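Table S7 (text form). Paired inputs.
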Amino acid sequence: MPNEHPIYLGTVALEPNRWGLVSGDRRPLLRPSDWLEGARVAGFDGIELWENHLLCATPEDVAAVLGSEVPLRIFNSYASLEDEADTAREAIASWVRRSGCEAVKYNVGGDAANAERYADRLRSWSEVLPEKVRLLCECHAGTAAEDPAVAARILEAAGPPERFAAIVHLGDEPDYVDELFAALGTRIRHVHVNFLRQGAPQLEEIEADVRERIAALARHGFSGSWTIEFVSGVGTERDRPADLLAAAVRDLAVLREALG
């Protein structure tokens, strides 16, 4: 029976080259075998897959991901909406069709003046994606969607909330989260559990704060899915896949308990 509050493992959390700091080109150092079995044993409900873990994978690794007991639920895409050409977005759509995942995470560009252009490209992208796949806008710092009003303008122009939805970050300032809900309402369907701005503590170290933030989301009517996006150890001497997976598993236990 599916969990009422599904929690996914973000594979970007475990990837040493997630920001291109190791080789400069963001080619992954991890293979699916480095995290699939750990995710299964820990009891994650699915995977939010960093795109290069498939785009750069061998045929054997692709087969492992697509045939895993832990389903690929969200495709974490960095296909640009600044680019007029649809090539990268169509390539992602092909992977989404192959994997059967239910959502695509994306980021808009940084220019609020291009809001209508972003909306147009989102609509075009949706037309080559399976009908039930949701497009999840990450309201990320440095993008136009960081401004709740601009995010609302883009998504309203793109289409209905069931298709064009949004992500909030659990570690964002509560007042800002309130602003996002005021602007986006039921479009907010997913949470990234990310406390990088607070130094990436283990959730058990800030459990009371985590519970308070979860309660605030519930008051806004949120009842969607969750991804453990970043964990304790990222950017430190403990930024090693095995240590990060262990941290993610500990966070999973805390989040599972807090969600009830």
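Next pair, protein 2 of 2.
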Amino acid sequence: MTAPPIVEVEDLKVHFPVQTSFLAREKPVVHALNGVSLAIERGDAFCLVGESGCGKTTLGRTIMGLTRPTAGDIRFEGATISRLSDGEMRPYRRRMQMIFQNPYASLNPRLTIQRTLEEPLRFHRPELNESEVKAHTRDVMVSVGNDPEWGSRYPHEFSGGQRQRISIARALMVDPDFIVADEPVSALDVSVQAQVLNLLMQVREARGLTYLFITHDLSVVEHFGTQVAVMYLGTVCELTTPKALFAKPLHPYSQLLLSAVPKLGRKSFKPVKVPGEVPSPIDLPTGCVFHGRCPHANQRCREEVPALNTVKARQVACHGVDEGRI
């Protein structure tokens, strides 16, 4: 019998109410996620790409249980976890950890590094005695290239790259199976980015981890990912391997993203010009959410929401691709 994906999302929707006057008859909502479905296999480095505001972080936080879904299911190794209480989620929280985007805000400034790292271990593994906690903390610090002597210091004494390595160590303290990494290198210098990415890859190989890696940097996807999903306005446009995406993107929005990536050896650089602006997630367009900016859109695109169908060994949500027009 084939093992289920470690994480599976089915028709996930997340809507946030907008604060308005109490006299307003209708309360508008932000449609952050609109029917997202995907499966992350064990051992994958599953990358989620798209421009700011497309719902990447919301998807990661919802999978982790930090945001409640409006509709849809989230499954961890086949067990539905999207409707569990905080107490019922506790066994899963040890196996699912998150690395946050901003290393300057994700660490408690009042706690020493030692206390920051020990806290999740004491909560999830109360059977460990004091010496075992100290030994495990030291081992994890060494495994991510940190000096164990840092334990007595506070977060403000470290650089951004050092803080992010401490955040990675914190996520690894409870030996998780699955990690959501929310743009963990976007706030770092380019040279430090490479160090942190290499560390994440080494840790994945050494511990057999599975990642949901959220990023807007396609160069990271090309070298780090095993699968990639392209998101636009709360929906998945294309789901494939990085190699296939970079060789030939099929969805018009994927083509737009790839056209904006400079490449060595290209004699001229002319990114595709797309008319219009990204629609508001409060007032979504009918049909395909990209139809107002797509050069291939027809009447069907304006009226009917495209399903994520398998085309040429990948999944694409586009009527034009289904009909052979693109």
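The mean pLDDT is 91.
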